[in-house]
Design a protein that fits this description.
It contains three helices and seven strands; from the N terminus they run E-H-H-E-E-E-E-E-E-H. By secondary structure, the protein is α+β, with helices and mostly antiparallel strands. The chain is globular, with a radius of gyration of 17 Å.
């Protein structure tokens, strides 16, 4: 009897963005639902709409994220917050439906960590962890942190504008 080998391609990508802001200020935006409200306003070319499906911003919260019209691929995806750690400033969101899962990914998880540094500055570390199904293992879909980098820069700029000059 022949056994079929299943191959899974796994990987992760990471991007770090230095904010020049205290970690707590950055977490105020990333830690709950505010980032989802701000991104369509600040970066309509990244996400046109982020809607709360269920939850209050904590673990178990589900969001429906819609791409702008004309974006190649899926129109939208659902993500679920599987971890929200308000002490260590870590949030993990797993894509549960649509989006990347329509394009060969078995798992697509985004982890945001706000790492406090000295002198009232912090780093936004955005990590994507993914698994690709067998069918796409030889020609894997493209994974990029560029969208997360763009979001980190826009949110940092927004927080600085809200705070005003020191």
């Amino acid at each position: 009897m022949a056994t079929e080998l299943t191959r899974t391609m796994k990987g992760s990508l990471c991007h770090e963005y230095e904010t020049g802001l205290p970690a707590a200020d950055v977490w105020e935006v990333y830690g709950g639902l505010l980032a989802g409200q701000l991104i369509p306003q600040l970066l309509p070319q990244v996400f046109s709409k982020v809607e709360l499906v269920e939850g209050d911003g904590g673990a178990g919260t589900v969001l429906l994220v819609t791409f702008p019209p004309g974006t190649p691929g899926s129109e939208a995806f659902k993500e679920k917050f599987i971890k929200v750690d308000n002490e260590n400033y870590i949030k993990e969101a797993l894509v549960t439906e649509g989006g990347f899962l329509d394009h060969g990914f078995k798992k697509y998880l985004v982890r945001i960590e706000i790492i406090g540094k000295e002198e009232n500055t912090s780093i936004i570390r955005s990590t994507i962890e993914y698994e690709v199904d067998d069918e796409h293992a030889d020609n894997p879909p493209v994974v990029s942190t560029s969208g997360l980098a763009t979001i980190a820069a826009a949110i940092t700029k927004h927080i600085k504008e809200q705070k005003g000059p020191e």
